[in-house]
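User: Could you check the structure of this?
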Amino acid sequence: MALSVVPVESFSVSGQDVANNYSNNRQPLLQKEYIELPLGTIKPKGWMEQQLLLMKNGMTGNLDQIYEPVMGKRNGWLGGDGDVWERGPYWIDGLLPLAYILDDDQLKKKVQSWIEWALASQNEEGYFGPETDRPNEPGLQRDNSHDWWPKMVMLKVLQQYYSATGDKRVIDCLTNYFKYQLKTLPQKPLGHWTFWGEQRGGDNLMIVYWLYNITGDTFLLELGELIHQQTFGWTDVFLNQNHLSRQHSLHCVNLAQGFKEPVIYYQQSKDYRSIEAVKKAVKTMRHTIGLPTGLWGGDELLRFGKPTVGSELCTAVEMMYSLEKMLEITGDVEWADYLERVAYNALPTQVTDDYSARQYYQQFNQVSVTREFREFSTPHEDTDLLFGVLTGYPCCTSNLHQGWPKLVQNLWYATADNGVAALVYAPSEVTLKVADGIDVRVKEYTDYPFNGQINFDVSFADLQVTQAFFPFHLRIPSWCKKPVVKVNGQPVTVDAYTGEIVKLNRTWRNGDKLTLELPMDVSVSRWYDGGVVVERGPLIYALKMNEKWTKKNFEADKVVEYGPYYYEVTSDTPWNYALRHTSCAKENIAKSFEVDVKPVKSYPWNLKNAPVTIRTKATKVKNWNIERGSVAPVAYYTQMNFDTEGEYTIELIPYGCTTLRIAEFPIR
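Assistant: Sure, the predicted C-alpha cells are below.
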C-alpha cells in the first residue's frame, strides 16, 4: 500500500490549470491552492444540518413575510416600486445557498423569481437591475438604483445560481454586464453614486475573475485592472497607513469586505505584497481594534478593542466570506483558523435559536441586553443591543443569512492534485470527483468545534469501484500541539505540524476510516488592557449567566424603523469576577481549569445544550457595576490587589452558547 504524507507548500506556478476534475484559474491568473465545489455538493449533518433547518423555518426562509415591505412584491429587484438597493440581494445571497444545500424546492422557488427578474431586466447596453429612483418612503431605500454596489451582491447571487444549476443565461448576462462596466466605469467610477461600491470593489473583481475562468474573454482582465484601480486602496492601507491604529477611520463592514480584496487581486498581480498586507493587518488589529472573536471594535465606525464596544452582525458574516475566499486562493491555514474563530464564536450568539430575531451589535462583555443608550459611535436610538427583526439597523436582517450556508459550502474543497481537502471542520458529507474522475463520498462525523475527534468514512459511488489512489488534505490548526492521524484505527506516522496542511497520498479503499484527533488544551490570552480570555481549541469560553428573556412591543411610531417587537435579556447571576494570576500561569492552567465535555445535542448553541463546561476559581472585584447598561470601566490588569474579595468557583461555557457573559476577565 502506497502512503506518503508531506506538508503542502504554496504553489508558485503562473496559473496553469492542472486540475483535471475541476477547473482552476485560467492563465495568466495564479493557480489557486483549492477549488470550490459546485453548490449543493456538500451536505451538512448533525448539529450543522439542524442549524440550517432552523434558518429555513425562521427568518431566512420566511423573510418575504416577516419583512414584507422590503422583501415582498414591491421590491425593485422584483420589478416593484419599493426598495431598489442592497437589502433584497442581501437576502437572496443567503437564501439561495441555503435552498440548494438543503435541496429544498420551496426555497428554490422563492429564489427563482429574483433570478428570473434580474436576468430579464438586462437592457441592450448590458445594464441590469432596477433603474428608477423614486421619492423617499419610510423604511425603504428607493434611490441610487444605478449604484454599482447592490449589483455586486447580485453578481454573487448569479454566480452561486450558475454553480448550482449550470444555467448558461448567467454567463451571457454577466458577459454583457461586464462589457457595460468596462465602457461606463471610466466616466462613472465605482464611487460615483456612493462610497460603498468603491470600498467593496473586491466583490465585483472576484466575479470578473470567476467569469474569465469560464469564458477566457481577455477584456475581463482589462476590467479587473480597472476595478482594482478604482477600489479603495486596501493593500496600501494595511501596509503603509494607520487606519487600523486609530478610531473612526473606516466603516466596520467595509473593512470586513475589503479585507479580501488584496488577495483577490493577487491572482492577477502576483505581487506578494498583497499577502503581506493582510497578514500585517491581522497583527496590527491584534493590539488596536481587535476583539478575541477575530472581529474588531466596530459599532459602524472602528473602535479600539474595549470589550464593551459594539461589533456589528454584518461584520461577522462578511469577514467569514472574505476568509473563505482567501483560504481557497492561498491554502493558508491562518485563514481557516481565523474563519472558525469568527464562525464558532461571534456568529451563533447574535441570532436567536429559532432564527426569529437578531442583534445589530454584540458586546464581548455583555451583561444586559436592554433598551438603553450605550457608548456606541453610531447608536440607533436605544435599540442596538436588543434582539428584534429590525432593531439597530435593517441591513443585518437582510445580510445575516449568508453566514452558515457559505460556511458549509467551504467545509470541503477539490485540490489541484485531484484529491479532496477538509480544511474547516463540521459534521458533513461530500461527494466529489478524485483521481481520474472517480466519484468518492466522504462522511465526516464529529462534535467539532466542541470536541477534537474527527472521523471520516470513505466510500465510492460506483459499486464496481473498490479503491482509488488520491491525496486527502487535512488542516492542523495552529492551536493544536499534538495531532494524531489514524487510518482504520492504526496511528500513522506523519509530519503533522501545528498550523500546516498535511497531504495523505494513499490508495483509499471502500470503507476506509480516517481519524484526525486534535487535542484541545485550555489556554489563556491577553487582550484589551491586559485582560484575560480563556480558550480551548477554536472556542472562547465565557461566564455562564442565567438569562431572563422579556418580549416587549415598540411604540407605534417606531414600528416602521425598528420592527413590531424586541427582546430584552437580563440576569440575576453575579458577574463581577476576576481570575487569579496563579491560575492563569502557563504551568498551572491544566490543574486550574477543569473541563467537562458532553456529547453534542442537535442544537448546541445555548445555555441548556452547551456541550462543554470549564470550572475554575475566581475572585470578585469590588464596586464593579453596570453603567448605562454596560459593565463599568475597570482596570483589567493591575499590579496591586486591593479591590477584590472572596474565592468562588465559576462555570465557563462556549461564548457562542451565551447571550449574557463576561468573556474578558480582569486578572488579579
